[in-house]
Amino acid sequence: MHYIQDASIDCPWCGEVFSTSIDTSQGSHEHIEDCAVCCRPIAVCVECEPGEIHSLESNRP
User: For residue 38, what are the domain limits?
Assistant: First the structure.
């Protein structure tokens, strides 16, 4: 089983979409990640189970 899954995040600051890797072994969780384009912080909320992402939401923290 592959716990690390690729996902796309929409930056709520600059509007750009970039790819990231999500560790699904943690189960559903929230974390802060910097935008790969504008470097501002993004609150990422992940609903997942090991090996599968159900939903991913990105907001300003």
Answer: 4-59
